[in-house]
């Protein structure tokens, strides 16, 4: 990463932090990544400069973890993923069950705090809603 890349990504992460702080307490990690909780959903934000003029924010929300490894639940999550405009669902099968994440990456360079916060809140609100739906389907509190 060049000094220019580092500067641009740092500026974008600062803008994202300011946008998120309108709604959440935000933690800045040692590498500059941001983390916060939206309800019971932990989230992380990173910035990457893919090319000059194309710097993206990547938002990852851990929707649920250790869910029962149930085929119907996985199908339900997959169907829900197809309905979403803001993010891609991932289902990972582990020894303890299923983990579900929601990821969204978008070009964010030059966005002002208000539209940036709106876009971020659309994604995390989707993650929280999905968490509620998945947990209602399992009767679990994971």
UniProtKB/TrEMBL annotation:
Top-level lineage group: Bacteria
Cited InterPro entries: Put_sensory_transdc_reg_YbjN
One Pfam family of this chain: YbjN
Protein name: YbjN domain-containing protein
Organism of this sequence: Saccharothrix hoggarensis
């Amino acid at each position: 990463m060049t000094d220019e890349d580092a500067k641009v990504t740092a500026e974008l992460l600062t803008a994202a932090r300011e946008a998120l702080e309108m709604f959440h307490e935000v933690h800045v990690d040692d590498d500059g990544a941001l983390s916060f909780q939206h309800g019971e959903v932990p989230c992380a934000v990173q910035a990457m400069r893919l090319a000059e003029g194309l710097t993206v924010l990547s938002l990852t929300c851990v929707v649920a973890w250790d869910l029962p490894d149930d085929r119907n639940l996985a199908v339900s999550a997959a169907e829900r993923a197809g309905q979403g405009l803001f993010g891609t669902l991932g289902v990972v099968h582990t020894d303890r069950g299923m983990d579900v994440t929601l990821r969204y990456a978008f070009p964010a360079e030059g966005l002002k705090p208000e539209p940036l916060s709106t876009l971020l809140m659309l994604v995390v609100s989707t993650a929280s809603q999905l968490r509620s739906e998945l947990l209602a389907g399992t009767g679990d509190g994971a």
